[in-house]
């Protein structure tokens, strides 16, 4: 877990360094210089503009680019979901190892780490799989923010509206929709079975709503569309309804229905069915 945090912080720091935070409100064009502008921001702006010309509005252009990005990341997201399922399956054995090696001395903890990694390897669990899609999406998300902000600062570009939402301005309604969609995605995914991740089920939606009420609606639209794709992915791969059926079958009420009724004896000594 510490390695994940260090890796995430390092990527964020590197991304912000490349982003050139002082340029977020500057106009953008194909002549803009710098690695971040040439390889992240301008390609996103050009692609959004291409689909805007093809589909008619910047809103539809943003949706098209979002779908393309999420489809490109889909193999990683599927791998993350499957790894999370396997992680849940090995939780009982992992708890046994934790009880076996509960001593905190260095030798015991080293043995625990070795057996834990062997357990993960045998069951095809990759602890870093859940972090990789986030790491890859981070520069894309920041690049999307810069692209939208700089398009909004470019006089020749008018983002217009999508439905009732002006894309250049924040929207509380769209922010709430994005937050609710994020909650549903987490509720139907592996987070609900992992006590360590359950806090994210409530923290992430609130965070997205907070960002959504101050950032342009174009970026919030990216979150909404991305979460719709994630929800479909969870329904296909994780199948949350199957888990509910298992949970209901495990309840005492459900178990009692399966029990065979014992015959009740009458006063005459007979049996009453």
Mean pLDDT: 75
The strand order across the widest sheet is 1-2
Q: N- to C-terminal separation?
A: 59 Å
Low-pLDDT sequence parts: none
Largest sheet: 2 strands, antiparallel
Please report the number of helical segments.
11
* Structure classification: mainly alpha
Number of domains: 2
**How many strand units?**
4
**SSE arrangement, N to C:** HHHHHHEEHHHHHEE
What Rg, in angstroms, do the CA atoms define?
25 Å
Strand content: under 5%
Shape: elongated
Helicity range: 55-70%
InterPro entries: YidC/ALB3/OXA1/COX18, YidC/Oxa/ALB_C, YidC/YidC1/YidC2_Firmicutes, YidC_ALB_C
Main location: membrane
Keywords: Cell membrane, Chaperone, Lipoprotein, Membrane, Palmitate, Protein transport, Signal, Transmembrane, Transmembrane helix, Transport
Subcellular location: Cell membrane
Would you write up a description of this structure?
The chain crosses the membrane at residues 54-78, 125-148, 160-185, 197-215. It is found in: Cell membrane. Residues 58-239 form the Membrane insertase YidC/Oxa/ALB C-terminal domain. Belongs to the OXA1/ALB3/YidC family. Type 2 subfamily. This is Membrane protein insertase YidC. The protein is mostly helical and 273 residues long. The chain folds into 2 domains: 2-82 and 128-240, no CATH class; 91-124, no CATH class. The chain is built from 11 helices and 4 strands, in the order H-H-H-H-H-H-E-E-H-H-H-H-H-E-E. The chain has helices at 2-19, 35-55, 58-89, 91-100, 106-122, 132-152, 172-187, 198-212, 217-237, 240-249, 252-258, and strands spanning 161-162, 165-166, 264-265, 271-272. Strands 1-2 form a two-stranded antiparallel ribbon. It is elongated, with a radius of gyration of 25 Å. The N and C termini lie far apart (59 Å). 26% of the residues are buried.
């Amino acid at each position: 877990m510490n390695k994940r945090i260090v890796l995430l912080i390092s990527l964020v720091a590197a991304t912000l360094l490349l982003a050139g935070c002082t340029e977020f409100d500057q106009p953008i064009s194909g002549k803009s210089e710098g690695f971040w502008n040439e390889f992240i921001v301008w390609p996103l702006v050009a692609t959004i503009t291409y689909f805007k010309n093809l589909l008619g509005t910047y809103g539809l252009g943003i949706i098209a680019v979002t779908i393309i990005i999420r489809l490109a990341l889909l193999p990683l997201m599927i791998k993350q979901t499957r790894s999370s399922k396997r992680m849940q399956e090995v939780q009982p054995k992992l708890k046994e190892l934790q009880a076996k090696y509960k001593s905190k001395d260095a030798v015991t903890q080293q043995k625990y780490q070795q057996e834990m990694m062997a357990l993960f390897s045998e069951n095809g669990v990759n602890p870093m799989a859940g972090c990789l899609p986030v790491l890859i999406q981070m520069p894309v998300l920041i690049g999307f923010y810069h692209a939208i902000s700089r398009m909004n600062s470019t006089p020749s570009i008018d983002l217009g509206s999508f439905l009732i939402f002006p894309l250049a301005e924040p929207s509380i309604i769209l922010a709430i929709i994005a937050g609710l969609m994020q909650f549903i995605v987490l509720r139907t995914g592996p987070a609900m079975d992992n006590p360590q991740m359950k806090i994210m089920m409530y923290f992430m939606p609130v965070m997205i709503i907070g960002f959504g009420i101050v950032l342009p609606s174009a970026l919030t639209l990216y979150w909404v569309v991305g979460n719709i794709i994630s929800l479909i992915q969870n329904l296909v791969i994780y199948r949350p309804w199957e888990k509910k059926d298992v949970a209901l079958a495990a309840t005492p009420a459900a178990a009692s229905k399966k029990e065979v009724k014992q015959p009740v004896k009458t006063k005459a000594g007979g049996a009453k069915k």
